[in-house]
Amino acid sequence: MLQNAFPDNKKSDNRDLNSTSKNNSGIIDMTQLEDFNQQIYEQFSSLLEKKKLTNQLNDSVSVQEFIAESERLNIIEKAPFYVAKFLFTEQIVKEIEAYRMLLYQLCKKHMTRQRSLLIGIEMIIDENSELQEKLLNTGCISRIFYELYQKDIVTEEVFCHWHEQNATEIINETISTKIRDCAENFVEWLHSAEEGSDEDDNRSK
C-alpha cells in the first residue's frame, strides 16, 4: 500500500495558495502553449540551457533572475511546462531533487503553474516511447508525484483537481488516461492522509 511506502501523512498546506489562486480552479488554457511565440521560446530555452550548463538552477540569486526574465517575457505561467520539457528525463525523481529550488520558486502559491508543471510531465511521457516504457507504471508515477508533493512543489488540491480533469488537447488522450490511472493509488493516499490528519486534529481539540 502507498500508505506504507509514503509514511509521512502530510496535510496539504493551503496557506501556500494566494487569494488569486484560491479564486480560480487552477486551469490553464493549454491551447495557448501551442501558439507560444517561437522567438520567445528560443530566448527562454537559451537562458535555461545556459543556467543548466553553469550549474545555476539551484542558486537562489540565479533562480530569481530566471523567474524575473520569465516574467519579462510574459511566459511565467507557462514556464513550468517548458522547464519540465527541457530538464526532465527518465531520471525525473533525481532531477526534481536537483532542481528543487527552481521548481519550488516557480510553482509556490500558484495553482496554475503547478498544473502547468504536471502537464509538462504528461507531455514528455507522451512524446517519448522510451519514457512510456520506463515511467508509465503505478510505482514510477507515484514516486514522481510524491517527490513533487513532499517538496511542496505541487499541492494536494492541484493533484486532485488534475486527476479529475480530462486530458488536455495537446496530450494524447490514451497516454493521459494511463498516467491518471497510474496516479490513482497516489491520489487515494493523499485523500487517506488528509482524512487521518483531520481525525488527529479532532482528537486534539
What does this structure look like?
This is W2 domain-containing protein. It comes from Adineta steineri. With 205 residues, the chain is mainly alpha-helical. The protein contains 14 helices and no strands. The longest helix has 21 residues, at 184-204. It is globular and about 40 Å long. It starts with a helix and ends with a helix. Mean pLDDT is 82; it is low at 1-27.
Structural class: mainly alpha
* Poorly predicted runs: 1-27
Hey, roughly how much beta strand do the residues contain? under 5%
Major beta-sheet overview:
none
Features:
single chain, mainly alpha, Serine Threonine Protein Phosphatase 5, Tetratricopeptide repeat, globular, 205 residues, 14 helices
Summarize, please.
With 205 residues, the protein is mostly helical. Helices cover 69% and strands 0% of the residues.
SSE inventory with pairings:
Blueprint: H1 2-5, H2 19-22, H3 31-34, H4 38-53, H5 60-72, H6 79-87, H7 92-98, H8 100-107, H9 111-127, H10 129-135, H11 138-150, H12 156-164, H13 173-182, H14 184-204
Helix pairs in contact: 4-5, 5-8, 6-9, 7-11, 9-10
